[in-house]
């Protein structure tokens, strides 16, 4: 449920300008997701969402970009967003809840793990390109441990 809620929050703040937590709670409720203010506040912190200035006045939640606050640490996101990971050769395919691959990919890109050359994110799938097959094995093992997944 937490992964679905996180994916919904990311999708919503990318789709529209959400100016406060109460409005975000209302939108989540309309989508069938009930959340307390304390949990929502924690979710926003874990996801690394930032409040940015709205040129029209006020502020709204946004997913960090290179020009804003850094992505949340991989250690925080992997436990919530990583559903599965499989690899072959130097490539690994990571599955996430819908709308979450970009957040996890950005977090990995900003973490600058030596074994990872880069990431390509779709909606719910992330491609990790590593330096070698051995590097991919190390990365998949490390991510699986962070997410509590048996590899």
Helices, strands, pairings?
Blueprint: H1 2-15, H2 21-30, H3 37-47, E1 50-53, E2 59-62, H4 74-81, E3 84-88, E4 91-95, H5 101-111, E5 116-121, E6 125-130, H6 133-147
Helix pairs in contact: 4-5, 4-6
Looking at this protein, list some descriptive labels.
single chain; 151 residues; alpha+beta; Arc Repressor Mutant, subunit A; Gyrase A, domain 2; 2 domains; four-stranded antiparallel sheet; two-stranded antiparallel sheet; 6 strands; 20% strand
Q: Would you mind describing this structure in some detail?
A:
Helix 4 packs antiparallel against helix 5 and helix 4 crosses helix 6. The protein has 6 helices and 6 strands; from the N terminus they run αααββαββαββα. Strand 3 and strand 4 form a beta hairpin. The chain has 151 residues and is α+β, with helices and mostly antiparallel strands. The strands form 2 sheets. A 4-stranded antiparallel sheet has the order 3-4-6-5, covered by helices on one side. Strands 1-2 form a two-stranded antiparallel ribbon. The mean pLDDT is 88. The protein has 2 domains: 61 residues, Winged helix-like DNA-binding domain superfamily/Winged helix DNA-binding domain (Arc Repressor Mutant, subunit A, Orthogonal Bundle), CATH 1.10.10.10; 74 residues, Gyrase A, domain 2. The chain starts with a helix and ends with a helix. The radius of gyration is 16 Å and the shape is elongated. The longest helix has 15 residues.
Number of domains: 2
Strand arrangement, largest sheet?
3-4-6-5
Find the CATH topology of the largest domain: Gyrase A, domain 2
Question: Per CATH, which architecture of the largest domain?
Answer: 2-Layer Sandwich
Shape: elongated
Poorly predicted residue ranges = none
What is the H/E string?
A: HHHEEHEEHEEH
Percent strand:
15-25%
Largest sheet data: 4 strands, antiparallel
